[in-house]
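== Sequence and structure of one protein ==
=== Format: two labelled lines per protein ===
==== Data for this protein ====
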Amino acid sequence: MAQSVEKTGRTVEEAVQEALEALGLTRDKVEVEVLEEPARGILGLVGQRPARVRVTARADMVDVAEKAREFLKELLAHMGFAGVSVNAREVDGVLRLEVEGKGLGGLIGRRGATLDALQYLVNLVAGRYARVASRGTGDQEDRLRIIVDAEGYREKRARSLERLALAVAERVRREGRKATLEPMNPMERRIVHLAIQGCEGVTSFSEGEEPYRRVVIAPLKK
């Protein structure tokens, strides 16, 4: 994961946005150094000399992300996946650890169960490291949410759940009877709820206790 980049733009803010996109980070996860202010040209035109900034990922976030990546790679080696690579990228405050290699079907597990277990362990270790790293700094703990993926499974599963939600919602609307889906983890339930929001005549809610909590799709009461 890149730690620092320099970018230019017509304004300082534009240059900062370019840098944030290059790093894959949000503004609260970086430190910004303005190297050059933009200069106006003849007749007051803006942009004769662009703004130039250096944007650096905060050390604590880089350390936590790297520790999480190293832990996952070591864990995979113990599981017999020594020949794989783990790539890290941060999007909208979420660190995605993407495992790449051959023969990763066993790493995913039934409906992503093994991935979910790995993701839980990685988040647990990263959270503990973040707490230790923040001691004595006076800063509040800045928890980094981590998603573990392999072979693009999360995206494929999300699209599958969206199709399922829309199909069930149509049946519920047509028949006027609620339907209960299979148990899902919180991330998958959220995907279903978001899909249902765009459907007329139906609503969704969750019921039950983890790990058997399910989404219920029901007709809206008139």
